[in-house]
Amino acid sequence: MSFYLIGDSNNAGKILANKPIRKNSSPKPKCNLFSGSWVFDNVSYPLYKEQQCSFMTDDFACHKFGRKNSKFQHWRWQPHDCDLPRFNAKALLEKLKGKRVLFVGDSLNKNQWVSMVCLIESSGIPSLKPPIWKGNLITFEVKEYNATIDFYWSPLLVESNCDDPVKHRVRDRIIRIEAIEKHARNWIDADILIFDSFTWWLESQMTLLWGSFESSDAIYKKVGMKLRRYEMALRTWSDWLEFQIDRKRTRLFFMSLSPPHRNATDWGMGNGQNCYNETEPISRKQYWGSENDVKMMEIAEEAVNGLQKRGLDIQYLNITHLSDYRKDAHPSIYKRNWVALTKEELLNPRSYADCVHWCLPGVPDVWNQILFAYIMNSSRENRVKL
Questions:
Q1: Which CATH number fits the domain 9-382, given the four candidates 2.60.40.1240, 1.10.10.10, 3.40.50.1110, 3.60.21.70?
Q2: Which is it for strands 159-160 and 137-142: parallel, antiparallel or unpaired?
Q3: 107 catalytic, yes or no?
């Protein structure tokens, strides 16, 4: 087994090439996992097949719902100066023996979680049982390794009126901006926590609540400043982690913004178009989509940096730029949520194409390859500090 020297992803995401680390050896060249290009590879990719994953959900099963083009599945992320370690489910599960991994966040984090369980199943591990869904928590158990890989629905991290994992589409989002315990008590025993929370904060107006939903003297305030709201929520999240997480046990990751492709003018197409019918990645170097909120990303990075300074073992995985090239890899109209799109909706992809989530197999598999590299590098001393 090789070991990887990995640094902070906002500071070049450094990783030592696929060579053992030896004491007293001369410094090895370091590589930025997050800087590279997409290379077409129809020999090694995809890492699994959609129809062979028992745990695939209709949200991400693009071929099942009519997508004919499969080229989007055959792109490999190639860092400039090294190779991204290939996902090895059995090596990962050996590492996770007796442990609990928990993805916490919104449907994009669920997208990554489904990718992870599909990757694990593809290794041929026997006796995998269907995930158990209980409230906000979905539990996937690998009995042979006494390990669980779970997902917890908490799109805003703090408490809100959007916390129901099924009925969460509400017109007026109300956020208990200083309350997190209802969710967080379900995370406290995890050995590895992977968080995300961006998309749900982008509403122009949200109502913040101080007090409980049941309280007669609670304070409600409409707040339009999304950056301020987001900063307040991440402060609540950070404070809970600082005082509740076992620093000797738990590793933490925060996934950066997953880029949408709803505005085709970004890549030179007509106004009103989106990811629908896109079949190739964006080739322009240093492309940056107009929907990627840099200031929100900076707030998340600052929160992670603050936790690192407070002694927590946390990394910010900046997958935004590498994912931003992949306008071709979204479900578009080829999916089903709780109900299928109507004929009228299918004929109106400008309004109904999903250019936010990702088809599987696809881009989230690369996120998990990167996560795999970080998890396999268990020695905290070997990680480059900020």
A1: 3.40.50.1110
A2: unpaired
A3: yes
